[in-house]
Amino acid sequence: MNSVAAVAHPNIALIKYWGKRDEALHLPMTTSVSLTLREFPTTTTVTVRPDLAADRVTFAGAPAPEAFAERVSRFLDLVRELSRDRRHTAVDTVNTVPTGAGLASSAAGFAALALAAATAYGLDPDPRALSRLARRGSGSASRSIFGGFAVWWRGAGDGESGDLSSFAEPIDAPLLNPALVVALVDTREKAVPSREAMRRTVATSPFYPAWVEESARDLDRMRRALGEGDLATVGEIAEANALGMHATMLGARPAVRYFAPGTFRVLDRVLELRAAGIGAWATMDAGPNVKVLCDSRDSAAVAAAVAEVAGGAERVVVTTAGPGAALSGSGHR
Ligand code: 2P0
Fold first, then answer.
1. Is the CB of 151 under 6 A from ligand 1?
2. Ligand 1 atom showing the smallest separation from residue 141 Cα
3. Residue 224 pLDDT exceeds 70
4. Is 16 in the pocket of ligand 1 (CB under 6 A)?
5. Do 222 and 99 fall within a single domain?
6. CATH code for position 264
7. What is the number of the ligand 1 atom nearest to the C-alpha of 195?
8. Mind listing the pLDDT tens digit for each residue in 236-257?
9. Mind listing the pLDDT tens digit for each residue in 271-315?
10. What's the gap in Å between 48 CA and the centre of ligand 1?
């Protein structure tokens, strides 16, 4: 039996992906930009098993929740279609993201699964095709195929032309040495899953079209700032883009609100840090936790300042730029 393991890491968007123009193909409304992290790898092992009548999906050996197993199996259907190989597989995923940390484990999970499954089924995709495949599992997974900064293009058109043109690729930013300080203000399960929140925002928020328009301008400025090593501009754009995304959610009917009291304390602390001359900028995803972008040299000072308002050092995690998805070993059993 051919067993293939792959490892991938979460990414945090600095220009957000929020909204799809095609739900089935996971084609986004906007182009997004992210930083892949060095921390919290997900390792996924795919074993093609001619003896199985259905896919078997486990988390560290224990049966996965049914909805997740179903989502993985639908993804494997795609890989089977591409490889014209109808055999089923056993998939085991070992996740190291702290529960509720707001570091989307689906990005790392589907990036690792895409690489492991494509390899196990003999597809040998190039990085662009692999990113497009990962996108079909979870949009943000397209970005975790690559290390460091990545841009996931919106792509042009719908259907096949959209599918072919919506992929991620790395962005060179040799002058930057970024860190993201994650403040865990609330680790309970979120009230509205991001997929549903996105859908509701696109369908009902009058503020959404304005954010989409602004996002295109953010992208041009962000790419220039990344190339120039201008972290202050990168941070300002990231903070504005994220808060704008949350504003679109507040405008949805009914509203989607991820802010918690602790969120505001951390956002205030970030403003205080900047007033004190330390470069620190906030971003937030589909949850109340705050990620603070800074230079790696400032990460200890930023972490200490944020810990004071986030409930102590154990509620703060310092993360840095990490690698793209990679095979972690394969062989025949
Ligand atoms: C992002 N998020 O750019 C945005 C910002 C959350 C907030 O990507 O439906 O799990 O599987 O394509 O990738 C979370 O969305 O959504 C996400 P699907 P995904 O990181």
1. no
2. 13
3. yes
4. yes
5. no
6. 3.30.70.890
7. 9
8. 999 999 999 999 999 999 999 9
9. 999 999 999 999 999 999 999 999 999 999 999 999 999 999 999
10. 29
Residue 287 is predicted with a pLDDT of: 92
Average pLDDT over residues 130-154: 98
Pocket test for ligand 1, best of 97, 140, 215 (most atoms within 8 A of CB): 140
pLDDT at position 330 is 45
Output the CA 20–ligand 1 centroid distance in Å. Answer: 10
Q: Which ligand 1 atom minimizes the distance to the CA of 26?
A: 12
How many domains does one find in the chain? 2
Residues 69 and 213 in one domain: no
329 pLDDT exceeds 50? yes
In a domain, 165, yes or no: yes
- Is position 265 within any domain? yes
Domain boundary among 143, 174, 205: 174
Q: Judge if 149 and 186 occupy the same domain.
A: no
Minimal-distance CA residue to ligand 1 atom 10 = 138
Percent of the chain with pLDDT over 70: 96
Which residue's CA lies nearest to atom 11 of ligand 1? 138
Atom in ligand 1 nearest the alpha carbon of residue 106: 10
pLDDT higher than 50, residue 50: yes
On the question of a cis peptide bond just before residue 254, with omega within 30 degrees of 0, the verdict is yes
Q: How far is the CA of 49 from the centre of ligand 1 (A)?
A: 31
Residue 137 lies in a domain: yes
Q: Residue whose CA is closest, atom 20 of ligand 1?
A: 13
Beta carbons of 134 and 116 less than 8 angstroms apart: no
Residue 23 pLDDT: 96
Q: In the listed set 174, 196, 216, which residue is the last one of a domain according to the structure?
A: 174
What domain range includes position 111? Answer: 2-174
> What helix, strand, coil percent values describe the chain, rounded to 5?
40, 25, 35
pLDDT in tens, 185-221: 987 777 899 999 999 999 999 999 999 999 999 999 9
Residues 44 and 162 grouped into a single domain: yes
35 lines ligand 1 (CB under 6 A): no
User: Does residue 151 fall inside a structural domain?
Assistant: yes
